Amino acid sequence: MKRAVGATVAVLAATLLAAAPGPLVAAPQDQSLARLQERDRRLFAAGWRLVTGNAPYCTGAAPALGLAVLDAGGFGDPEAVRRQLGLTGDLAVGAVAPGSPAEHAGIAPGDTLLALNGDDLDRRFARARPAWRRLVEVTAALDAAAAAGPVTLTIARAGAAPRSVTAVGVPACPSRFEVLDRGGGAMAEGSRVILGRDFPGFAYPEPEFAAAVAHELAHNLLGHRALLDAQGRSLGRVRLTEREADRLGAWLLANAGIEPEAMTRFMERWGPRHGGGLFRKRTHEGWDERAAAIRAEVALVRAAMARDGKADWARHFVRELPAG
Q: Residues spanned by CATH 2.30.42.10 within the chain?
């Protein structure tokens, strides 16, 4: 797993596109798009639990809606995607986190997004080149609106007249969650947690999948990318970032209402099956060593929960790598 951070985006935005320069994807077939959407929603749901549960302890927490944006205009054949999803415009809801303000407002995946606080989105955000730019701009507009107060969205659902709904954001740690239409890796890019569509963790039980997401989110919350950029990427330093992310992941899970032991189980499931690659890299310790370190951290998390009723990692997590 890679590392990163420097988060600035407050409203979560999982996307079916690579939100970085690159070639446009071809229009997917029905089955492949449905599979990508399902994985996108699963990642978004796990991420939402983690960023809202840990909002009291992270830097830069800000109001979020629990709404993920999809841009049909970023695909190779936008009209085919719009037809397949029943959209009346390019911009739509890709995922809604369970229990989020967006869900409580009645917003659902597949709703076309027509306007934000009365401002027509298609007119304000025309298709752009590179195609990922529009999604970034729309997300930034949602961020700003959620930070300012209640957000009114005009949406259209297949077979129904457009309607306006209002949602008020809740605090969340700053990170976005994305599934790419290719690859099987996982990485933290600073403000984003990114999984390839073939990431093996999608086949794991929900707590262990959430543990994989927590590991990547921990890289972002601990500022690992910026830290390594500043201090250099020696083998020892990179290993410490990996171990810190393993350990903090247990705290993040606990605050999300997920047993912190899931972090150990994830490592014990992942390591033996993938030990020929990721966990034999010189930048990573062996999976068994990492599992042992996680077990020791879980004991600390459990002690904090028993003592304080919460896992306040901002106060009690011990860094191994200097932050500055």
A: 30-35+61-172
pLDDT value of position 30: 64
pLDDT digits (tens, 9 = 90+) for 142-194: 989 999 999 999 999 987 899 999 999 999 999 999 998 889 999 998 889 99
Residues 61-77 pLDDT 10s = 999 999 999 999 988 88
159-164: which pairs have CB atoms within 8 A and are 24 or more residues apart? 162/114, 164/115
* Residue 278: predicted pLDDT: 43
pTM for the complete prediction?
A: 0.86
User: Which top CATH class is 30-35+61-172?
Assistant: mainly beta
d(CA 60, CA 72): 30
Nearest-CA neighbor of 114 among 136, 89, 134, 137? 89
**How far is Cα of residue 45 from the mean position of the Cα atoms in its chain?**
9
